[in-house]
Design goal:
- This protein is α+β, with helices and mostly antiparallel strands.
- The two termini are 28 Å apart.
- About 7% of the residues have low confidence.
- The protein is elongated and about 75 Å long.
- It is 44% helix and 14% strand.
- The longest helix has 43 residues.
- Strands 1-2-3-6 form a four-stranded antiparallel β-sheet, with no helix packed on it. Strands 5-4-7-8 form a four-stranded antiparallel β-sheet.
Length: 225
């Protein structure tokens, strides 16, 4: 079984994220039960555990990132959409309607997205701060060139400002490298605890809430919502 994942793929859920290519990834269930994924020459790449891949053997629990941020769980891609003959289910397959509890997951997903954007904005701010010493250096050289000896008196002050800027940018770079990955990892872990089926508590993947709602049931326990 092969499934093409992307904005124009045949995966069992819609993808509208613009950073994901139309035909981004191929997911194939092999005869021995293993799962092989293959990047289809996507524009923004495919990543597993932060490393860009072309082809890799994974499990159904593997989280794959398409482009910069869009994440999927391989098990969610391999969901079978077939129904029992006659549309009837046996007593062991009957599911519960837990719409009320499921609707609470919308707030969980919205909060996760808001926190993720906040972390990305913090990272962008730190990158901007790291660029300031270079801008200051350019300005100082320009002033020296334009005014010559007239700026000699304030050169020590200008040098101190430059030195302080370099120290600040280095510290921000270090903090960004240390803090942001930890924040993102903790955010993902908490999301995997909270974004679960109301009945069986299985993680529902990194799919948007509306995609889960359109699916109509949990892939693990078949509980309806």
């Amino acid at each position: 079984m092969e499934i093409i994942v992307g904005r124009k793929g045949n995966q069992p859920f819609a993808i509208t994220e613009k950073s994901v290519s139309g035909r981004h990834l191929k997911v194939a269930k092999l005869a021995d039960g293993k799962v092989e994924i293959e990047d289809l020459g996507s524009t923004n790449g495919t990543f597993v555990d932060g490393a860009r891949i072309i082809k890799k053997i994974v499990t159904e629990d593997t989280i794959v990132t398409l482009g910069p941020t869009f994440q999927i769980r391989i098990g969610d891609v391999l969901v079978a959409s077939s129904k029992p003959i006659g549309g009837q289910q046996s007593s062991t397959q009957q599911t519960e309607n837990c719409t009320t509890e499921f609707e609470k997951l919308k707030a969980v997903y919205d909060n996760y997205q808001a926190e993720k954007i906040k972390i990305q904005q913090e990272n962008a701010k730190k990158q901007f701060m790291r660029s300031l010493p270079g801008v200051a250096t350019t300005v100082l050289f320009a002033l020296t060139f334009l005014f010559g000896d007239s700026v000699n008196a304030i050169k020590p002050i200008m040098g101190a400002i430059m030195f302080g800027g370099i120290i600040l940018s280095s510290w921000l770079a270090y903090k960004g490298q240390q803090d942001n990955p930890v924040k993102m990892e903790n955010l993902n872990k908490q999301f995997m605890v909270d974004y679960v089926c109301p009945k069986c508590k299985s993680f529902l993947g990194f799919l948007p809430f509306e995609n889960l709602k359109n699916r109509g049931c949990c892939t693990a326990c078949k509980t309806k919502w």
